[in-house]
Amino acid sequence: LQKVLARAGLGSRRACEELIADARVTVDGEVAVLGRRVLPTSRLALDGVPVPTDADLVYYLLNKPARVVSTAADPEGRPTVVELVPAEPRVFPVGRLDWETEGLLVLTNDGELTNLLTHPRFGVDKEYLAEVDGVPSRAALRRLREGVELEDGRTAPAEARLHQERGDTAAIEVVIHEGRNRQVRRMCD
User: Fold this and answer.
1) CA atoms lying within 13 Å on the CB side of residue 129
2) Is 22 among the catalytic positions?
3) pLDDT above 90 coverage of the chain, percent
4) 172 - beta bridge partners?
5) In sequence order, what are the residues at sequence separation of 6 or more whose Cβ sits closer than 8 angstroms to the Cβ of residue 137?
6) How far is Cα of residue 160 from the mean position of the Cα atoms in its chain?
7) Rounded distance, CA 182 to CA 99, Å?
8) 106 to 82, 127, 128, 147: CA distances (angstroms)
């Protein structure tokens, strides 16, 4: 087990042995013990997070710049996030950030991880730092926390708080569970 964890990039074999001894590793849902043998089909997790053991799987964390599309191909010929990482193996973005938005984006060929991160039943939070004109009032932040009526329906309640005031603008932290098109931008409008 510790060899497999080390090959997956979790640290040296000795560091992986410590993770196992600290009961932080599970194999097929059971807490692992030192000396445990694993099969290629075993499901490994560290602190409840799946550990990819397939050498063909690739993961990129990309700081997406503004004016780049979060897609693999764009019919309008705009630059895409896939063009910013190596061409092989083929990867795809997990989730979307709109054309003007910059921030952390995962690109991978791991369909299972993509499902875990994007399917609503898993409730993965998406955190944004939005720059807005003016300084939002307490009432405006409360509306974000209660849900905002958009043209495609009411949003689920969000976490929202003032992060920083900058004269005529402000930065607010918004945490949502949904992933509608341009949702945070529309909620802030």
Assistant:
1) 8
2) no
3) 74
4) 130, 162
5) none
6) 18
7) 9
8) 11, 14, 15, 27
b/e burial code for range 19-52 (CB count within 10 A of at least 16 → b): bbeeeebbbeeeebeeeeebeeebebebeeeebb
CA distances from 105 to 83, 127, 174 (A): 14, 12, 17
Active-site residue (options: 98, 110, 125, 168): 98
Q: What is the pTM of this model?
A: 0.71
Predicted confidence (pLDDT) per residue in 69-96, tens digit: 999 999 999 999 999 999 999 999 998 9
Q: Do residues 185 and 128 make contact, with C-beta atoms less than 8 angstroms apart?
A: no
pLDDT given at position 121: 85
Cα(75)–Cα(73) distance, rounded to whole angstroms?
7
Angle at 92 between CA 171 and CA 48, to 5 degrees: 75
User: How is residue 49 written in tokens?
Assistant: 């997070």
For residue 59 the two structure tokens come to 């993961």
pLDDT reading at 18 higher than 80 = yes
